[in-house]
Structures are given as structure tokens and as C-alpha cells.
Write a structure and sequence with these properties.
Strand content: under 5%
Structural class: mainly alpha
Largest sheet: none
Distance between the termini: 59 Å
Shape: globular
Helix content: 55-70%
Number of strands: 0
Number of helices: 15
Order of helices and strands: HHHHHHHHHHHHHHH
């Protein structure tokens, strides 16, 4: 198709997504950049490129692409979803809620609208607006009753406060290729003791530096499995950056109490919490 129509940007956008799904991030990024040479204001390419750069650990450049994308008005649900999707990987909750509020008709496409309501609910809860978040997840499920992301978050919101993980925009499969996660697990589990496991984890992160960038993002806003996976790997590797992420999570108000306590123990063991008293959020209070 591209030999016949090299300027067909929709095909190039789909090609970039295909590369990303195959775990070929470099080719996905190159394909998305190629779209922008033909159409510099293509929202799908800007959104895809933002997300690909986050997954590649290139957060600074991802933020630049996101700013270009945010300058384009969300004229329909399709554009709004692509913007909100990319911004959710950067944790830009204010921008997501602005896009949601700017859109005039949220229900023109039930499937896309449901996802947009879900992402707006995540952003709202991260801003402390639990009532608005619940309302948007409920609307998402009216539009698409099988949207598992909304089902999971809404069910989690009904758990006792000390057991909640919500909100999360996407599950771990959106952040890490399954083959990459399985490779890491194999390398760690094949070691005989904790110190050998730590060395194996650090070697893996040196070979895959983007994973060291993604793990703190999973700790901050991953789904239940993704967050626990990231906490355990970070607690094992104990690099300065991962210890800082564990300390920040331990002293936050998100995530289950027991997992934050575990993160605090990892951070303390690595010297990231310092000496003296540490404030800890439990049962809805400090």
C-alpha cells in the first residue's frame, strides 16, 4: 500500500502500532515520526509517538510531543481518546480532564466514549475527586459493559481503603511486553540466593534501561499486578532511582497499605528513607 500511496498517513499510523505490538519500539517510533513528516499535526501520530517514547524510557521527548498534541483541539471523541491515552502514560491528569471537559459530545462513539470516560475517571480520582470518578466509570460501563479497565477500577474502589489500588489507566500488558517481563522473571528466579538475584536484576536493567524508567511509573499508577511486580523488582534491584520511587510510594496515599509497608521496608533497607520518624498513610489517615 505504501509503495502505491507513500503519503497515506492512516496506513503509516497502523504500521507504527503493529511494530509496537511486536515489541519493535525503534521501528514503531520511526514509523510515527515518518507520519509527522507528511502531517506534522496528525493527532494519532503525536499520540502514538508520545506513548512509544514513554515505553522506550524517553520521558523528556515524550513530554515535548505531548505539548504539541495538547495544542490541537479535541474536535471529536476519536481525537480526545488518542490524546487522553497518550497523556495517561505521562500522568498528566489536568490535561486529560481539560480535554474531557472541552469535548461537546462524549457519546458519539460508544466504544471510544467509554474509554474516554474511564481515562477521565482515573484522572479525577488521582486528583482526589472520588465521586466524579465513580460517576464516570459507571457511565463508561453503560456505554460499554465489557470494558474491563472500568470494571476493575470500579470494583477496586469498593474495597476497604487499605486494600485499594485504584486508579490505574492501563494494565501491565500496556506497559511491558510479556516476553520482556518473562525474561526478567526467568533470570531472577534462576539464581540461588538474594544477592545473586539482585545482580541478575541489575544486569537486566542495564541491558533494558527503559524498564528502569517504566518501573517507577508502574509503582505510581500501575494496576494491582503491575504495581506489585514493580515494587518487588525495584526492591530487589535497589538502584538509587528505584529506591527513591519506593520511598515516594511508601509515603503516598495510593496503593494497599501492606504493599506500601513492603515498599517502605525495601526503601529503608536501601537507605532511602533516612533516620527518624516517617509519616505513613493507613486507614485513611496519617
Amino acid at each position: 500500500m505504501l509503495r502505491a500511496r507513500p503519503d497515506f498517513v492512516a496506513i503509516r499510523n497502523n504500521l507504527s502500532l503493529a511494530y509496537q505490538n511486536l515489541g519493535q519500539l525503534d521501528r514503531a517510533i520511526a514509523a510515527a515520526r515518518e507520519v509527522l513528516t507528511h502531517d506534522p499535526h496528525n493527532v494519532h501520530a503525536l499520540g502514538n509517538l508520545t506513548r512509544f517514547l514513554v515505553l522506550a524510557g524517553q520521558l523528556a521527548e515524550a513530554a515535548v510531543m505531548a505539548e504539541q498534541m495538547k495544542a490541537i483541539p479535541p474536535l471529536n471523541v476519536d481525537i480526545a481518546v488518542k490524546q487522553a491515552e497518550a497523556l495517561s502514560f505521562l500522568g498528566d491528569d489536568v490535561a486529560i480532564l481539560t480535554i474531557f471537559d472541552q469535548l461537546k459530545d462524549h457519546d458519539e462513539d460508544p466504544g471510544s466514549s467509554a474509554l474516554l470516560h474511564h481515562l477521565a475517571a482515573v484522572a479525577a480520582l488521582r486528583q482526589g475527586k472520588a465521586v466524579a470518578a465513580r460517576r464516570r466509570w459507571q457511565k463508561a460501563l453503560k456505554l460499554n459493559p465489557s470494558l474491563e479497565l472500568a470494571v476493575g477500577n470500579l470494583a477496586d474502589l469498593d474495597l476497604p481503603v487499605d486494600k485499594r489500588n485504584a486508579p490505574w489507566p492501563y494494565t501491565i500488558e500496556y506497559w511491558l511486553q510479556r516476553s520482556t517481563a518473562e525474561e526478567l522473571i526467568r533470570e531472577i528466579s534462576s539464581q540461588r540466593n538474594e544477592e545473586a538475584m539482585r545482580r541478575a536484576a541489575r544486569r537486566f536493567l542495564q541491558r533494558h534501561p527503559q524498564i528502569a524508567v517504566i518501573l517507577p511509573l508502574l509503582i505510581e499508577r500501575g494496576d494491582p499486578f503491575g504495581r506489585e511486580f514493580a515494587v518487588r523488582v525495584a526492591g530487589l534491584a535497589q538502584t538509587p532511582e528505584l529506591l527513591a520511587a519506593l520511598a515516594a510510594f511508601a509515603q503516598s496515599q495510593v496503593g494497599p497499605t501492606q504493599l506500601r509497608l513492603q515498599a517502605a521496608q525495601f526503601a529503608q533497607r536501601g537507605g532511602a528513607l533516612g533516620n527518624g520518624t516517617v509519616r505513613f498513610w493507613r486507614g485513611g489517615a496519617w
